[in-house]
TrEMBL record:
Phylogenetic lineage: Bacteria, Pseudomonadati, Pseudomonadota, Alphaproteobacteria, Hyphomicrobiales
Stored InterPro entries: Beta-barrel_OMP (IPR027385), OMP-like (IPR051692), OMP/PagP_B-barrel (IPR011250)
GO CC terms in record: cell outer membrane
Key word Signal present: yes
Family, per entry: Belongs to the Omp25/RopB family.
Entry keyword Signal: yes
Signal sequence, renumbered to the chain: 1-23
Keyword annotations: Cell outer membrane, Membrane, Signal
Pfam families noted in UniProt: OMP_b-brl
Name this protein carries in UniProt: Porin family protein
Residue ranges occupied by any Outer membrane protein beta-barrel domain in the UniProt entry: 13-212
Annotated organism of origin: Bradyrhizobium rifense
Organism domain of life: Bacteria
Location within or outside the cell: Cell outer membrane
Length: 239
């Protein structure tokens, strides 16, 4: 028994002495490279639909051409508007191009006392539509753009006295528009922005049957807040 115990002790000491050498002969742990970082870049390409709202001021000038001739005065027709837009954008590098159609209800109204007749000349814009092209430059999810195209406006012009309307003419007028906007992609597929538009409406003769004819000219300055939803993937991966 003593001989067996002595042999076991000697064997244990021998194994302990050789263990470091055996460990040194094991293969080194392989080095694993950390995963590459992935940056996400907002993609402005795709169809979108949205809503908008804001306010405007339409500078309106009346010049009578019959039966009298002369300036009747001018006023600013102011008020609010709400509507919607639909469009498509495509992105090339940081440049963004697009087309858009917009339609709005409006309530821009104002009046002035005629310098010729003493009547109150009143104008109102109750609707408008814009068909525009866009060119923009994107800093990831921030887009700055300019726009331009055609505009159509629904107007109503009235002659009033003692608070009552005695002659009115509804009119659809065509013109042009230019504008600029800043848009921010704040969530997948969603963006919010602000936009300025100027609408040019050339002068047009308006006849109030039985009373007078006026050459009426209008230009509209408008500010809008817009919310858009874009269909399709909002981001692309960039390694």
């Amino acid at each position: 028994m003593n001989k067996n115990l002595l042999l076991a002790a000697v064997s244990l000491v021998a194994i302990s002495a050789t263990a470091p050498a055996l460990a040194a002969d094991l293969a080194a742990r392989p080095y694993t490279k950390a995963p590459a970082m992935i940056a996400t870049v907002y993609d402005w390409s795709g169809f979108y639909i949205g809503i908008n709202g804001g306010g405007a001021s339409a500078h309106t000038t009346w010049n009578q051409t019959a039966p009298l001739v002369g300036g009747e005065g001018s006023h600013n027709a102011t008020g609010g508007t709400v509507g919607g837009q639909v469009g498509y954008r495509w992105q090339s590098a940081q440049w963004v191009f697009g087309v858009e159609g917009q339609g709005n209800w409006a309530d821009f109204s104002g009046d002035n006392l005629s310098a010729l007749t003493g009547f109150t000349d009143r104008s109102k814009i109750d609707s408008f539509g814009l068909l525009t092209g866009q060119v923009g430059y994107a800093w990831n999810n921030v887009l700055l753009y300019v726009k331009g195209g055609a505009a159509v406006v629904g107007t109503k012009n009235e002659l009033r006295a003692a608070g009552a309307t005695f002659a009115s003419v509804n009119d659809t007028r065509w013109g042009g528009t230019v504008g600029a906007g800043l848009e921010f992609g704040f969530a997948p597929n969603w963006s919010v922005g602000v936009e300025y538009n100027h609408i040019f409406l050339s002068g047009k003769d308006v006849t109030f049957t039985g009373f007078q004819t006026d050459h009426i000219k209008q230009d509209v300055d408008m500010g809008l807040v817009r919310l858009n939803y874009k269909f399709g993937g909002p981001i692309i991966a960039k390694y």
